[in-house]
Automatic annotation (TrEMBL):
InterPro entries: WD40/YVTN_repeat-like_dom_sf (IPR015943), WD40_repeat_dom_sf (IPR036322), WD40_rpt (IPR001680), WD_repeat-ST_regulator (IPR051350). Pfam families: WD40. The gene is WDR13. This is WDR13 protein. WD repeats lie at residues 132-173.
Length: 404
């Protein structure tokens, strides 16, 4: 029952546990700051510590989604997968800073072959790991499998594809009758994934043989899927602005539990946030009615059963057209980070007394579609979507210098 939440707890402890306290700002420090940088800060604006450390413009095609992976497999680097509107995926190695490696000094990593243990000679601290070529149209979602040796992609081209991350080889292709906005593995059975198509059908598919185990018809197209930390409840966000809660009644079956009408705009992203700091578990949801919503999850009775979703707060995000993504940083009392169509990355503190005061990051020149924070909570990736200016930034936080 608690297998997934136990796994999340182990990740927290592996990366140094939860952070608490007020005024610490988003992300953990991972860059050495100078005295001049410290003097240049405005009092109280902790996000001025965030610095863009890398900008990439790999192609002219808009970025659609990004995600980090293999964070517990290599001490020297993490992977960042970036997907595009033209159907290509590029996987990058993002090398850790000295401070990030120092945070992991007491952690055990699997034996590495040392092939990629050193950053590129140009001191960019980022390198192309592999390119995944095969989709013919825009990629709608990407995620790593449980072992993180494969990447899964869904696309407007009506397919779900499995790729070898190291070789870039396409391993499996599952086709559908219509575009596939999103998919997800069943936590208790990683040999089964659920995929949504634009005909408002959810399919449970066996990875090994491609057999469709179950079909569920929804009222309208599902555009976002996320399991909670029990692994038993699937949150499905729809084009019409509702969230369906489905229960994994066994390792191969989903059944509808209840529905919440959330917004007038379609749901484009759902992030699940486990309970922390006295706050209940919650969802961070982007909807295309210019808002992002923090939704509290109520469990029990009976214990462990998700019975209700209730809106805690809504914040303004410029969002009418694009499939904007959000993510969560556990720094301090937690932060909602969202893309926006006004060219800024929006950062909202979630702690009590914060008043959800938005702090923008202004690196991009065009709308920001995708954002992601690594598990170590030291690196924020943000990507924009307007051709031909498509770019993405990696931002890190300044730490204390010797001069301080």
């Amino acid at each position: 029952m608690r297998a997934i939440s136990s796994a999340i707890d182990s990740v927290k402890s592996w990366f140094g546990g939860e952070r608490s306290g007020k005024g610490t700002g988003v992300l953990r420090p991972s860059l050495k700051g100078t005295k001049a940088m410290k003097q240049a800060r405005k009092e109280g604006d902790t996000n001025l510590d965030l610095r863009p450390v890398q900008e990439l413009q790999d192609s002219d095609s808009a970025v659609t989604c990004i995600c980090f992976g293999q964070e517990r497999l290599h001490k020297a680097y993490v992977l960042l997968a970036t997907a595009s509107k033209d159907g290509t995926v590029v996987v990058y190695r993002c090398y850790r800073t000295e401070m990030e490696i120092a945070m992991l000094s007491d952690q055990d990593f699997p034996p590495d072959d040392n092939t990629y243990s050193s950053p590129p000679a140009d001191h960019s601290n980022i390198a192309v790991h592999s390119r995944l070529v095969g989709h013919s149209r825009a990629i709608t979602s990407i995620f790593f499998n449980l072992l993180e040796d494969q990447l899964v992609t869904t696309s407007i081209d009506k397919s779900v594809r499995f790729w070898s991350i190291d070789s870039g080889e396409m391993l499996k292709v599952f086709t559908d009758s219509s575009p596939v906005p999103v998919a997800a593995f069943l936590p208790f059975n990683p040999q089964v994934f659920v995929a949504a198509n634009s005909n408002a059908v959810l399919r449970l598919v066996n990875v090994q043989n491609g057999m469709v185990l179950q079909k569920l018809k929804v009222e309208t197209e599902v555009r976002a899927l996320k399991f909670d930390d029990t692994g038993l409840f699937l949150l499905a966000g729809t084009k019409s602005g509702s969230i369906h809660v489905l229960e994994a009644s066994d390792a191969n079956t989903l059944r509808f539990k209840f529905k919440v009408n959330l917004a007038r705009g379609g749901v484009t992203c759902i992030t699940f946030v486990p309970a922390a700091g006295g706050q209940p578990p919650c969802l961070l949801v982007n909807t295309s009615d210019c808002s992002a919503t923090i939704i509290d999850c109520t469990y029990g009775p009976p214990s462990g059963v998700l019975n209700n979703l209730s809106v805690r707060h809504r914040v303004r995000v410029a969002h009418e057209l694009l499939p904007l993504k959000n993510c969560y940083s556990p720094s301090g009392q937690g932060y909602l980070i969202s893309g926006s169509e006004n060219k800024d990355v929006h950062i909202y503190p979630l702690g009590k007394g914060s008043n959800y005061k938005m702090q923008p990051l202004k690196h991009h020149q065009v709308p920001v579609v995708a954002v992601s924070v690594n598990m170590q909570d030291t690196l924020l990736a943000s990507a924009d979507s307007l051709q031909p200016y498509s770019a993405w930034f990696l931002s890190k936080k300044l730490g204390r210098s010797e001069a301080d």
